[in-house]
Each structure stands twice: as C-alpha cells, then as structure tokens.
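[Q] Does anyone have a clean structure-token version of this?
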Amino acid sequence: MPIVNKTLRAIRNFGRVTTARDYKPDQIEVKPEDRLRAWKASVRIGGKWTEVAPQQERGGFGAILFGFDESVERGSLSMRRWKDIEQALLENLNPNPEDEFLTNALQHLHDANFRLALIEATVCLEIVLSQCLIVYLEVKRHFPKRKIESVLSNVGLTSRVGLILDLIFTAKQGRARFGSSSDRLAE
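[A] Here you go.
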C-alpha cells in the first residue's frame, strides 16, 4: 500500500483535503448495521421475516448522490491544487512543516476542535513569519546568519508580527502607525 498512502498524503498536504488519511486495511471500522446488512440478517416478527438492517431505497438522482458508503468521510479537492499534488508525487516531495500545520489546523476546524486548530495555525504562522524575516534580514539588511539567529531566538510572535508590519509599510507609514520595531533590530 505504499503508493496509495503516498498519494493520499500528497492529496492531504498539497491538495488541502484534510479527510485524506493513510489507508490501513486492518483498522477499518465496520458499523454493526453494515455487518448485519452484509449477513442479510432477518428477524421473525408476527410470523413474517424482516431484515434487521434493510438497504435504504434510493432511486434516480439520490442513488448517484447517496450511493457511497456512509462511513466514508468525504473531502473536497480544488482542481487548481492538482498541479501541486502531481508535482509532489512525481518529484517525491515531502510537505513543508508549515503546510502540514495548516492542513492539521483545517482538519481541527472541520472537527470543531478550535483549541487545537488555533495551536496548529499559530505554529504555522510562526514558521512563515520566521522564514519571511530571515529572507528580509539576509537580503535587504545584509545581516550575518549569526545575528539573524540571535534576533529571532529573542523575538516572540507578537514582535515578529510587528516586524512584518514594519516591512509591509514604508518607513514613514510604519512609524506613523505602529512605531518602528525594525530600527531596534539594527542596535
């Protein structure tokens, strides 16, 4: 099953389909009513045999919409993400940590687990802010790597957001709106 799971991971992380999970045939849960349907279990009530868990009748369009197994969790795949999935499969790419945290946050939101969603999204934000600041400090400010590591290890999330806001606005706009935290970096 390695190719199946590789494909499912690419769909989950690069296609943002949070319901796509590794396939483990030995861990598939079967609902009791599905088992009873498969066994065609019947009970005799008042001299008449009746199926314990009859198949639900769906005709026409309902058969197309609801013909899938009810235990299968469904997701939605945007076709514009297909190129990312295809590239990940062809080049054997692993998702970046921030992509995994974002996908996990989306899944927790889907499951209404808001605390975990917030934690995963915050970690994703910290990773992305750090990457952005590293590039800025290397390219625009010509900081040595040691100085960048020192700055980022001593700056929390709130300060990183402030630094990014300073970078977005021109120096004049940033000082007028937020005060300047980027000037403190040069010290």
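[Q] Thanks! Anything notable?
[A] Residues 62-68 have pLDDT under 50 and may be disordered.
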